[in-house]
């Protein structure tokens, strides 16, 4: 068997990215995508449907990346999955196909209804589709039987009527992709700084003296961020990385827009310091850094910002006492880093006049995720690194509008001010009780208490834990409605009434009775800006997301004081309604329609950035955190033995979440060097030696789950890689079936996708 790894020796970016961009275009018929790319992330252009990284504040001729090109090319693909395609394939047959094949069938073209007798989806008229969904919803014995899932790809103009629909129907059951993603960040920042969003803008990168990057692989998932890190590194800023894997994309980066770097393949060094913390070890590492900072202060170093701490924070004494009580031995054991390494990181932090901390899924998808991010906030507060130029915290969001969706009300835990705003503007009393989050929805689907599922985008069951079980349970639902651009596995398990409703993509022209429409999105630095699709729609039968959502609502709830039809046909109406609801709930939406027309849109002010702390104490809150003894891995090892490994599921270069791309050259994960197969497991030499396994060997992976249920993924090839002992890494979504829904973050309930206890056995 061929070894799938060819180690990547060049800088990330550079020619590889240019080739990758060209491949994206070639594999999908270049023309439509080529029309879109020059307008990507440009003022008044199209917002990239890839990640939520902010657009350049300066005018840049090119402000998209290779990964954006793949996202766009896959949306503008010439391939189609029309009704004839569905007539020729039963769902049983389609279920045999891989994620990449399902995606590869192309764009959906017509509304489809599941027909159980033939086990196929068949075309249905739009009007009938709306009526069928409405009947099924109205016949539920309680609105709480329905869940309204949202993936973070839809615009504000679709998300707002969607949450209004759920609440007017009578439920806050709005699980969303944030529950799977940055929920832990929102909670930790909310409890400590009073606002669950980034406190910095893209300009702040120009003023930082140190940037700490935790649990993030920007070379693959936020490539435009590498440009900012590169510029920072070139002007002498320290870039300190905490990541158990050596990610080549974080080591050095050749700017594809620099001819010299591209031609030589030698880019700029990115990480000045790289710490291979153990998976789940960041809380200990951050505790250690705080200890080192406090020790430096005690030694007379004058490193704390006393004025800031006194004036702006609360809880310092309890925090400091708790940090000092955590023994260095435990800090070292839990983090996998030596005291000297941690002191080195602390020294960088102490020396820098302004520090930024960014993070992504490496911090959020753990049992102690919320606590870990609170520990990061603690560290930043020690030197007043919030609310001044070049300093602050930034959770780097995933989906391009996941932050905007939350801002306009998509959440299972709405704030009372938001509900009051809905009541004031629309005159109904929205439900106050919190609804189901994603894991609770999964459990409800499995235990039969949920009867209807609606999805505004996304691939709910494949993106969440215990996929095979959840998919099976979805077939027992009374109703499934998926608003989608492409086919995916969740669609292949319809309920009794099963609807698949195809929508326009963001790059496509949206003509409504009110004229051509544009939508708006919010990036991870809180810039709200317009996105105007101009491409030819993939099919004449496609409807826009706002139209589909509002017609579903109108059919279900009838005519009411809520102007559904206007919101579905003239999005300025929606924006003005958002502005009205936001007036007493979210700052910064004044004159939404006027200001969205500005070239780069407008910034939603962040109270913490202004050192206005909307917390219980009215101050920025230090959190006293002990290092946990009771952890997923300790419990699993107590139950299953010391051979249990910790699996972190991550993304490869050629995928967008559950969408796996096929690359004609066999490239799977460029920077990590993987080719031709996704069935690999990255493992350290020491772990292999301990378990009597060897590089290249095939293994079966068994979950060591707390609920004792057997879960298994077979035939994975071991790849020796520089990762800490006891930790292994593999790709989602393939390995998600190993994850029990009981593995989740305390507080945020985000699945612990990066902390999955597993056992390896030589393949049978
Ligand atoms: N091209 C592309 N772009 C994307 C996406 C995509 O799939 N493809 N997805 C989008 C979405 S929704 C999101 S949320 C983001 C995700 O962006 P990332 O968070 O960068 O994605 P992951 O692959 O989950 O990578 C997590 C990183 O965390 C590290 N890690 C794992 N466990 C730990 C740990 O315990 N501690 C630390 N310090 N590090 C750890 C891994 O080694 C890896 O480098 O990307 C967005 N952008
Ligand atoms: N094991 C493991 N699981 C994870 C993660 C992990 O790191 N490890 N990461 C988690 C994270 S961070 C996230 S955000 C979730 C993602 O979870 P989701 O957001 O649910 O999943 P996606 O794969 O992004 O959704 C892809 C589908 O969205 C639809 N789609 C694409 N574009 C559009 C559009 O413009 N409109 C509409 N209506 N539909 C569209 C297509 O049908 C496509 O198949 O996955 C989570 N799951
Ligand atoms: Mo995400």
TrEMBL record:
<keyword id="KW-0411">Iron-sulfur</keyword>
<dbReference type="GO" id="GO:0051539">
    <property type="term" value="F:4 iron, 4 sulfur cluster binding"/>
</dbReference>
<dbReference type="InterPro" id="IPR037951">
    <property type="entry name" value="MopB_CT_YdeP"/>
</dbReference>
<dbReference type="InterPro" id="IPR010046">
    <property type="entry name" value="Mopterin_OxRdtse_a_bac"/>
</dbReference>
<keyword id="KW-0408">Iron</keyword>
<dbReference type="InterPro" id="IPR006656">
    <property type="entry name" value="Mopterin_OxRdtase"/>
</dbReference>
<feature type="domain" description="Molybdopterin oxidoreductase">
    <location>
        <begin position="107"/>
        <end position="483"/>
    </location>
</feature>
<dbReference type="GO" id="GO:0008863">
    <property type="term" value="F:formate dehydrogenase (NAD+) activity"/>
</dbReference>
<keyword id="KW-0479">Metal-binding</keyword>
<dbReference type="Pfam" id="PF00384">
    <property type="entry name" value="Molybdopterin"/>
</dbReference>
<dbReference type="GO" id="GO:0016020">
    <property type="term" value="C:membrane"/>
</dbReference>
<keyword id="KW-0004">4Fe-4S</keyword>
<dbReference type="GO" id="GO:0030151">
    <property type="term" value="F:molybdenum ion binding"/>
</dbReference>
<comment type="similarity">
    <text>Belongs to the prokaryotic molybdopterin-containing oxidoreductase family.</text>
</comment>
<keyword id="KW-0500">Molybdenum</keyword>
<protein>
    <submittedName>
        <fullName>FdhF/YdeP family oxidoreductase</fullName>
    </submittedName>
</protein>
<dbReference type="InterPro" id="IPR041953">
    <property type="entry name" value="YdeP_MopB"/>
</dbReference>
<dbReference type="InterPro" id="IPR009010">
    <property type="entry name" value="Asp_de-COase-like_dom_sf"/>
</dbReference>
<keyword id="KW-0560">Oxidoreductase</keyword>
<dbReference type="InterPro" id="IPR050123">
    <property type="entry name" value="Prok_molybdopt-oxidoreductase"/>
</dbReference>
């Amino acid at each position: 068997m061929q070894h799938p790894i060819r180690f990547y020796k060049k800088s990330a970016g550079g020619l590889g990215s240019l080739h990758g961009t060209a491949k994206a275009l070639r594999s999908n018929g270049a023309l439509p995508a080529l029309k879109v790319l020059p307008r990507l992330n440009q003022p008044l252009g199209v917002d990239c449907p890839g990640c939520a990284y902010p657009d350049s504040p300066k005018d840049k001729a090119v402000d998209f990346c290779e990964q954006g090109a793949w996202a766009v090319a896959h949306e503008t693909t010439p391939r189609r999955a029309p009704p004839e395609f569905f007539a020729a394939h039963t769902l049983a047959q389609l279920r045999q196909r891989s994620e990449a094949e399902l995606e590869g069938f192309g764009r959906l073209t017509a509304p489809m209804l599941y027909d159980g007798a033939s086990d196929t989806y068949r075309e249905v008229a739009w009007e009938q589709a709306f009526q069928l969904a409405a009947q099924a919803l109205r016949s539920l014995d309680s609105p709480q039987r329905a869940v309204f899932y949202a993936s973070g790809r839809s615009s504000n103009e679709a998300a707002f009527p969607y949450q209004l629909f759920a609440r007017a129907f009578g439920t806050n059951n709005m699980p969303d992709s944030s529950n799977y993603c940055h929920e832990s960040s929102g909670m930790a920042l909310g409890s400590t700084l009073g606002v669950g969003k980034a406190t910095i803008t893209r300009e702040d990168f120009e003023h930082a003296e140190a940037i700490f990057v935790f649990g993030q692989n920007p070379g693959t998932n936020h490539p435009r961020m590498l440009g900012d890190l590169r510029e920072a590194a070139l002007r002498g800023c320290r870039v300190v990385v905490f990541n158990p894997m050596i990610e080549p994309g974080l080591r050095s980066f050749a700017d594809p827009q620099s001819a010299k770097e591209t031609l030589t393949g030698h880019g700029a060094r990115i990480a000045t310091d790289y710490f291979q913390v153990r998976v789940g070890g960041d809380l200990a590492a951050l505790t250690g850094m705080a200890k080192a900072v406090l020790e430096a202060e005690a030694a007379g170093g004058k490193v704390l910002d006393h004025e800031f701490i006194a004036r702006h924070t609360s809880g310092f004494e309890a925090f400091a006492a708790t940090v000092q009580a955590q023994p260095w031995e435990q800090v070292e054991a839990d983090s996998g880093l030596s005291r000297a390494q941690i002191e080195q990181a602390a020294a960088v932090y102490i020396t820098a006049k302004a520090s930024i901390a960014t993070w992504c899924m490496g911090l959020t998808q753990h049992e102690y995720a919320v606590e870990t991010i609170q520990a990061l906030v603690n560290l930043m507060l020690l030197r007043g690194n919030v609310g001044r130029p070049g300093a602050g915290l930034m959770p780097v969001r995933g989906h391009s509008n996941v932050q905007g969706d939350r801002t306009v009300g998509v959440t299972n835990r709405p704030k009372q001010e938001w509900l009051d705003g809905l009541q004031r503007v629309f005159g109904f009393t929205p439900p106050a009780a919190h609804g189901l989050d994603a894991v609770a929805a999964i459990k409800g689907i499995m235990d039969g208490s949920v009867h209807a599922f609606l999805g505004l985008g996304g691939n709910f069951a494949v993106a969440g834990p215990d996929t095979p079980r959840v998919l099976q349970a979805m077939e027992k639902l009374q109703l499934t409605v998926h608003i989608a651009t492409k086919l995916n596995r969740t669609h292949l398990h319809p309920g009794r009434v099963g609807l698949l409703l195809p929508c326009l993509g963001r790059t496509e022209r949206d003509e409504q009775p009110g004229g051509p429409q544009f939508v708006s999105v919010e990036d991870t630095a809180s810039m709200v800006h317009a996105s105007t699709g101009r491409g030819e729609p993939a099919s004449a039968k496609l409807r826009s997301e706002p139209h589909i959502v509002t017609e579903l609502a109108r059919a279900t709830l009838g005519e009411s004081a809520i102007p559904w039809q206007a919101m579905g046909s003239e999005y300025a109406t929606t924006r003005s309604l958002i502005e009205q609801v936001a007036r007493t709930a979210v700052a910064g939406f004044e004159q939404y329609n006027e200001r969205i027309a500005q070239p780069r849109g407008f910034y939603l002010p962040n109270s913490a950035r202004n050192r206005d702390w909307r917390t219980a104490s009215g101050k920025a809150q230090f959190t006293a955190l002990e290092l946990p003894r009771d952890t997923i891995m300790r419990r699993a090892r107590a139950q299953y033995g010391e051979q249990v490994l910790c699996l972190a599921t991550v993304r490869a270069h050629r995928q967008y979440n559950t969408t796996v791309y096929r690359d004609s050259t066999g490239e799977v994960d460029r920077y990590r060097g993987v080719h031709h197969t996704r069935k690999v497991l990255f493992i350290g030499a020491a772990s292999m030696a301990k378990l009597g396994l060897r590089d290249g060997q095939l293994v079966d992976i068994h979950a060591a789950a707390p609920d004792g249920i057997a879960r298994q993924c077979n035939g994975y090839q071991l790849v020796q890689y520089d990762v800490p002992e006891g930790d292994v890494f593999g790709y989602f979504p393939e390995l998600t079936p190993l994850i029990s829904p009981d593995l989740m973050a305390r507080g945020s309930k985000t699945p612990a996708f990066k902390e999955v206890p597993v056992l390896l056995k030589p393949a049978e």
